[in-house]
Every structure is written in structure tokens, then in C-alpha cells.
Design goal:
The complex is a heterodimer.
Chain A lengths: L2 H22 L4 H6 L1 H11 L16 E4 L5 H11 L40 H14 L6 E6 L6 H12 L5 E7 L2 E2 L2 E2 H5 L4 H7 L3 E6 L3 H13 L7 E6 L22 H8 L10
Parallel strand pairs in A: 1-2, 2-3, 3-7, 6-7
Antiparallel strand pairs in A: 4-5
Helix pairs in contact in A: 1-3, 1-4, 1-10, 3-4, 3-9, 5-6
Chain B lengths: L8 E3 H15 L3 E5 L3 H4 L2 H6 L4 E3 L4 H11 L5 E7 H4 L4 H10 L5 E5 L17 H6 L5 E3 L4 H13 L4 E4 L4 E3 L14 E4 L4 E5 L3 H14 L4 E5 L2 E3 L3 H11 L2 E8 L4 H12 L4 E6 L9 H7 L4 H13 L2
Parallel strand pairs in B: 2-3, 2-4, 4-5, 5-7, 6-7, 10-11, 10-13, 13-14
Antiparallel strand pairs in B: 1-8, 6-12, 9-11
Helix pairs in contact in B: 1-8, 4-6, 9-13
Classes of the chains: A alpha/beta, B alpha/beta.
């Protein structure tokens, strides 16, 4: 898909995110805005997937897991805009009876979701399992994940990193939302990750880096990662992003991690983002 | 005269190992995962016969549960194996989110449950696992009583779609369930029919309860013994049918009284048919190192404790 088209979709996704969280005065806009470009590129340009006929097993489809489940608004918007469910359902986010739970779940049977997430650190293990199942099934498609950088403080992530390298899980591409922020402040102040690139390398992974807000670079890096699959090593991409990207008063601050804009702030923010596909 | 044919003596974990081996031969979707306890879990045969379907995760139980959950996507039926303490307490949140809430077809197979793990002591003697697992929505909890039943249960849970916790143990105990017995999840076995008191037991306490029933019979007391191999879903109909006849109950389990089989039975009785109930189980204390059978005596889950509880329940009618 053309870069301009992807940028238009990402702009609409950002509007969806802000309207969803503002309507219920809760949810996580900061990280969602930061990953809007990545998920748009992944779903509209990279993955082979079947939005109109969702199957839990996803045989011969690329599968995505959102390990940092709190940025559900961006995933829900991208899923809806991809055709997994009607966009007007975005208006039910976090409301009683909705299929769009605060954190992603499977029990309401929302198409596109294959695993609950929210309690952090579990998604990489799950992805390794699905990657194993694909190999047993002789299914050549890939497994993608997204993790927060703060999430890497969970020990289970490092168990999965160790396992995937030792067992040559080479049909898996993990991406880290490297925005440097978490609820309590900067990651470096809360619990520094140290030299993340070197740590991943030492754990036996192929490591790539990319700018999470440059559509062309996202496309090129993800394609490069795909070209590196099947070579006995798992692949991780450190994706530099800004929390709150796209809204001038939100960008680069942890303060919008889990706070929704009020109606005035929403109006200001929407004024900065073009409505391209029609609001839900 | 209470008599059971004895088919030898074996540990229940070996029943799991044989059941898993049989599953490996007949169900290509069954996969095995283990966190560095292949020998203890008796998973060697499955591993040897199905190397491509066996996954050694190392000492990383949280990762093992996550991998198992992920493998269900694509149609695999994962059986995870480690000690009961590491199968539950260590990975409760992983089970809760990635298995139970996500309703994944994972079979969590847990050996060395309870006091009869013995000499390793309280760090490894989990007595809370039935409670933890039965509280999770979507989870089925199965506690078979001997080698044969553990093998039968292992095979049966592969056909059940959804998360299962299968609890078994280490000590060598008499085998008294017939090798060709049918195992139905959620359907209790009435092992002895009687009229004076209903004993409802699970796991190793079923054999202890058989011994207790013989002692009570010698005193002229007629025991009805129910092997409640499925804690959840609980066979309430079997409980009420028996208790409406005997009018009193003893529950017996190698588990904390808090949160175990006895609690589940008490809920059924409180709602439907109030009768005296006595609880044989570990009473809010950790265990310690020792010989398994000596530990059962010290912590009040031996044959004589079941006898005493039965006499007390009868006296309260």
C-alpha cells in the first residue's frame, strides 16, 4: 500500500483512539498513539491475514499478539478499520457488555483476538507456542508480537527470549515499543533496561531497529525482518516511538499513559489529526 | 464384607506417564511440555516416542504455561508437566490470563501434590492447589485416586475441550480401580454402598478411606464411599443421592481443609440438604520433611482420622 494511504489510515486510527478513551474517560491513549503507525503498517501492508473470516487457529495466516494489552484502543481501531468488525462497535469500548474489553480478551469473541493480555510479560511465551504449533503444522506463515519497553522488566520475557533462541524459533518477529516511558516515569528512572540491543544480541536474537513513526522505514524494516526468518534465529525489532505521537500536548510524556483527554482536550487533539476515513 | 481386588502397587504419576504415552500413539495433536522434571513426571516414554512433539522448557514454568497456551492456537493439545507447586502457585497469573480466561485447551498435569511428596518438605508440599484451580472459571479439576484411574483420567482429559488441572502424586499406593474401568469427568464413582455415613474422598485419601471403611465395618457401621475424582464440576447429584440415605458426611483429602473438596461438598449440602459434615484434611498449617505415611499420620489425614470423623459425623445426626 502507498505510504500516503497508510498515513491517512494512521491519522484516522489516532482519531479513533482519542474518541474511544475520551468517551469513557479511561483507557491508555499514550502508548496507543505511539503504536498507531506500526499497527497500521503491519495490518494493512505486511501481514497475510483474513479479516472477513476470522479463525482462532489462523492456519496459514500471519498471527499477531499484543502483549502490552493496555494499548487495546489502537489494536481495536486497526482491527475494525481492517474489517474484522464494524467500526461503529468502537463506540462500545470499555462499556458494559462490550466485546471491546478494557484489555483484550477472547471470552466476548471479538474477531481478531486470540489471547487475553493485560497482565504483562506473557505474550512472548504465547507467541513462541503458536510459532511452535505452526512448525508442527508445516504452516509457513509468521507470528508477530508487540511489547512495551517497560514490560521487559517482567522476568517471563527473558525466559521466553532464552527459550526461543535455544530452540531456533525463527518464524517469530517481536517488536518492542521503545518509547522510554512507563506509568511511574521514564524507564531509565524506574528500572533501566541498560543496553537493550546488546542484551537481545547476547540472548541469541537477531536485532533490528526502526523509527516507529516513519512509514517507509517501518515497511522496509518489517520486510527485512521477514526476509531474515527461517534462519535458525528469532528476530526482534527495537522500535523507537514517542508516547502520545500526533498530539502536541501529549507527545513524549508518561502523563498520558493511562489518562483520557477531557472534552476540551479532545477537541484540541482532533484538530491536529485529519479525519480521513470518516469517524465511527 | 468390604473387599477390593488389588492390581499391584504403583505411583499415580506412573499412571500419568502411561496415559500420556498412549495418547502420543493415538492422538497426533497431543504435545508434551516439561520444565526439567521429565523423569519425575514419567514423561520419558512420550518424549522418546514423539521427540518432535515434546518441548523441554528448562526451569521456566511461566514460559512453559505461556507456550502451552500459544500452542492451542493451531489445534495442539498441550500437556504440561511439573510438580504441583510449580504447576499452580508459581504460575497462577499465567494460568489465569493465558489459559483459564482465554479458555485454552491446556492440560496442566501436576505431580508430587500434597504431603506425600515427603522428605523434600513444605516448600514443595502444595496443599492449596485444588483451591487455587477450582476458583478459576473454565477450569476443570481432576484428582484421580490410583495408578489405573490416573491413566484413565489422563486419556479422558484429552477429549475434553478446555483447561484441565490434573493432580497426582509420588508415593507407591495400592491399585484398586479396574484397568478397564470407565472414567467420566464429573461423574463420581460409588466404590462402596452403605447406609450409616457417606465418605467422600479424592486422591490418595480414597485408599485411606477404604481402609477406614473396613475398620468401621468391623464396628458394625455401614459406610458409603464416593471417589470424587472430579472436584470441578462437582457431581452434586451423587452427593445428594448418597447423603439423603446416610444423613451425614465425611470429606477426606490430602489438601488444606480451606478451599478443598470439603468446601465444595459443604456448598452443595448447605444449599440442598443440611446434614452434619466432618472434614479430614490439613488444618491451616504447612507440612514438613518426613516419610509420606508418617506425615499423613502427623497431619491428621490417616485412616484413623477418617474413622474418627465418621464416628463424630454419625454422632451429630
Amino acid at each position: 500500500m502507498e505510504t500516503l494511504e497508510l498515513e491517512k489510515i494512521a491519522s484516522q486510527v489516532r482519531r479513533d483512539i482519542l474518541r474511544m478513551v475520551s468517551a469513557v474517560n479511561s483507557g491508555h491513549p499514550g502508548g496507543s498513539l505511539g503504536c498507531a503507525d506500526f499497527l497500521t503498517v503491519l495490518y494493512f501492508d505486511i501481514m497475510n491475514h483474513n479479516a472477513s473470516n476470522f479463525s482462532m487457529d489462523g492456519l496459514n495466516e500471519d498471527i499477531f499478539f499484543l502483549s502490552n494489552g493496555h494499548i487495546s484502543p489502537v489494536w481495536y481501531s486497526v482491527l475494525a478499520r481492517s474489517g474484522y468488525f464494524p467500526t461503529n462497535e468502537l463506540g462500545t469500548f470499555r462499556k458494559l457488555g462490550s466485546r471491546l474489553q478494557g484489555h483484550p480478551s477472547t471470552d466476548k469473541k471479538l474477531p481478531g483476538i486470540r489471547m487475553a493480555s493485560g497482565s504483562l510479560g506473557q505474550g512472548l511465551s504465547v507467541a513462541v507456542g503458536t510459532a511452535n504449533a505452526k512448525k508442527l503444522n508445516k504452516d509457513k506463515s509468521l507470528v508477530f508480537t508487540l511489547h512495551g519497553d517497560g514490560e521487559l522488566q517482567e522476568g517471563q520475557i527473558w525466559e521466553a527470549l532464552m527459550y526461543a533462541a535455544a530452540n531456533k524459533v525463527d518464524n517469530l518477529i517481536a517488536t518492542i515499543d521503545y518509547n522510554g516511558r512507563q506509568i511511574d516515569g521514564d524507564v531509565d528512572d524506574v528500572l533501566s533496561l541498560g543496553n537493550l540491543h546488546a542484551k537481545f544480541t547476547a540472548f541469541g536474537w537477531e536485532v533490528l531497529e526502526m523509527d516507529g513513526h516513519n512509514i517507509d522505514e517501518l515497511k522496509a524494516t518489517l520486510l527485512k525482518a521477514i526476509s531474515m526468518t527461517g534462519n535458525q534465529k528469532p528476530i526482534v525489532i527495537i522500535m523507537k516511538t514517542e508516547m502520545g505521537q500526533g498530539v502536541d500536548f501529549m507527545i513524549g510524556s508518561h502523563k498520558w499513559h493511562g489518562v483520557a483527554p477531557n472534552p476540551e482536550q479532545l477537541e484540541n487533539a482532533l484538530g491536529q489529526l485529519t479525519e480521513t476515513l470518516g469517524d465511527y | 464384607m468390604i473387599e477390593f481386588e488389588i492390581f499391584g502397587n504403583k505411583d499415580t504419576r506412573s499412571g500419568f506417564g502411561e496415559g500420556l504415552q498412549e495418547l502420543g500413539q493415538k492422538n497426533p495433536n497431543v504435545v508434551g511440555l516439561c520444565a526439567d522434571l521429565i523423569g519425575s513426571l514419567k514423561m520419558d516414554a512420550f518424549k522418546k516416542e514423539n521427540p518432535d512433539r515434546f518441548f523441554q522448557t528448562g526451569i521456566a514454568e511461566a514460559n512453559m504455561i505461556g507456550i502451552a497456551a500459544g500452542m492451542t492456537i493451531g489445534g495442539k493439545i498441550p500437556f504440561t508437566g511439573t510438580f504441583a507447586i510449580f504447576s499452580t502457585g508459581r504460575v497462577y497469573d499465567q494460568i489465569r490470563q493465558s489459559v483459564a480466561y482465554s479458555n485454552k485447551n491446556v492440560k496442566i498435569c501436576a505431580s508430587h501434590a500434597g504431603l506425600t511428596l515427603g522428605e523434600d518438605g513444605a516448600t514443595h508440599q502444595v496443599l492449596e492447589d485444588i483451591g487455587m484451580m477450582k476458583m478459576l472459571p473454565n477450569m476443570t479439576v481432576v484428582v484421580p485416586c490410583d495408578f489405573n484411574q490416573t491413566k484413565q483420567a489422563t486419556i479422558a482429559i484429552a477429549d475434553h475441550i478446555g483447561p484441565v488441572y490434573l493432580r497426582f502424586g509420588r508415593p507407591v499406593m495400592p491399585i484398586f480401580i479396574k484397568p478397564d474401568a470407565e472414567f467420566v469427568i464429573g461423574k463420581a464413582d460409588v466404590l462402596i454402598e452403605g447406609t450409616d455415613v457417606t465418605i467422600i474422598a479424592c486422591g490418595h485419601m480414597v485408599w485411606k478411606s477404604i481402609e477406614a471403611a473396613k475398620k468401621l465395618e468391623a464396628q458394625g457401621i455401614s459406610v458409603e464411599l464416593i471417589n470424587m475424582h472430579t472436584i470441578k464440576p462437582l457431581d452434586a447429584a451423587a452427593i445428594l443421592k448418597s447423603v439423603s440415605k446416610t444423613k451425614c458426611v465425611v470429606t477426606a483429602e490430602e489438601h488444606m481443609i480451606n478451599g478443598g473438596l470439603g468446601d465444595s461438598v459443604a456448598q452443595v449440602l448447605t444449599r440442598n440438604l443440611l446434614v452434619p459434615q466432618e472434614f479430614v484434611g490439613v488444618n491451616d498449617t504447612f507440612g514438613e520433611s518426613g516419610n509420606p505415611m508418617e506425615l499423613m499420620t502427623k497431619y491428621g489425614i490417616d485412616t484413623d482420622n477418617v474413622v474418627e470423623a465418621a464416628l463424630k459425623a454419625i454422632s451429630r445426626k
